[in-house]
Design goal:
Layout lengths: L1 H137 L3 H51 L8 H12 L8 H41 L5 H11 L5 H19 L33
């Protein structure tokens, strides 16, 4: 009887231990599932935070690119307006100087013609006057001889005045050309001081050659015009280089965005960039480069197609007690 009670007690004790072990195992599984759910929720929150940060970064990059593009457009418009005003001012000065020179030349030619005609008439009069003076001198008329001398002196003073006016006109013309050269030199220095002047070697060399062809002591109108045309070409090349640099900065931002999206949509933009940087690229190549960047931005701004999310499996529980009858030979719960 005592042996059977002892056996019952052992069985009861074993069952109680097994129940405790099973309850501990169930609690451990619940805890592991709770930890797995918490880990999954934390990962989802972190992924959502990263997604929001990426969207904020993209929005900031787009806003910055838009602001930079507007600023560059405003600066380009201001430069174009300044160039237009300068061109109008130079054209006005040249037209006024040319009109004044032609009017002065016409006036001087008329005056010279009048003076020649007057001198011819006065020469004849002088001959008659000299004959009369000779007669008067012979007759003892000293007063008539004095009048003839005064008339000759007046003619000499008139001729001297015309020569001085012609010299003043030539000096004014040289002053106008010197002022035009000074304005072109100031523009040349401003263009050479721009940040990307080193990248416009050909246009800069052409401008330097046109400047060296000018002799300050004998300025030529055609050479001044050639120097101005060379400066126009240099300024156009510098404007193109600045536009390319701005587009390259925008291209770098979009390439970084594309790398984040893990997409290969930047091929067309790279081809357009290479064509815009090629020697002899025109305005059409720059517009094509800008259009390619616009298309790339629109492609990156479209949301990505939803894909399957990876399933996170909680780790399988392991037995901590090798003597547990619910543990298998591999240490895993049965």
């Amino acid at each position: 009887m005592m042996t059977r009670n002892t056996s019952d007690t052992s069985v009861t004790f074993s069952l109680a231990e097994l129940a405790k072990i099973e309850a501990a195992r169930v609690r451990e599984e619940h805890l592991q599932r709770a930890r797995a759910r918490e880990q999954e929720a934390r990962e989802q929150r972190e992924a959502e935070a990263r997604r929001r940060a990426a969207e904020a970064a993209r929005a900031a990059a787009e806003a910055e690119a838009e602001a930079r593009r507007e600023q560059e457009q405003a600066e380009a418009e201001a430069r174009a307006e300044a160039r237009a005003r300068a061109a109008l001012e130079v054209a006005r000065i040249e037209a006024e100087a040319k009109a004044r020179l032609e009017a002065d030349n016409a006036a001087r030619a008329h005056e010279l013609a009048v003076v020649r005609a007057r001198a011819e008439g006065r020469r004849r009069s002088l001959v008659h006057a000299l004959a009369a003076a000779l007669g008067l001198a012979l007759c003892g008329g000293a007063a008539a001889a004095y009048g003839v001398a005064q008339h000759v002196t007046g003619l000499q003073q008139e001729a001297r005045r015309l020569r001085d006016a012609q010299a003043a006109l030539a000096e004014e013309r040289e002053s106008a050309r010197a002022a035009a050269l000074a304005a072109l030199d100031r523009r040349h220095a401003a263009l050479r001081g721009r940040p990307l002047a080193d990248g416009a070697e050909a246009a800069r060399a052409t401008a330097e050659a046109a400047r060296k062809a000018l002799d300050p002591r004998a300025l030529d109108h055609d050479r001044l015009r050639a120097f101005g045309d060379a400066l126009d070409a240099l300024e156009a090349r510098l404007d193109a280089l600045e536009r390319i640099a701005a587009l390259d900065r925008r291209h770098a931002d979009l390439a970084a965005w594309a790398a984040e999206r893990r997409t290969e949509a930047t091929a067309a933009a790279r081809v357009a960039a290479a064509r815009a940087r090629a020697a002899g690229a025109d305005e059409g190549a720059l517009r094509a480069y800008e259009s390619a960047l616009d298309r790339l931005r629109e492609a990156l701004a479209r949301p990505a197609a939803p894909g399957p999310q990876p399933q996170v499996r909680p780790p399988r529980p392991e037995c901590t007690n090798p003597g547990d009858p619910m543990c298998g030979l591999d240490g895993r719960p049965l």
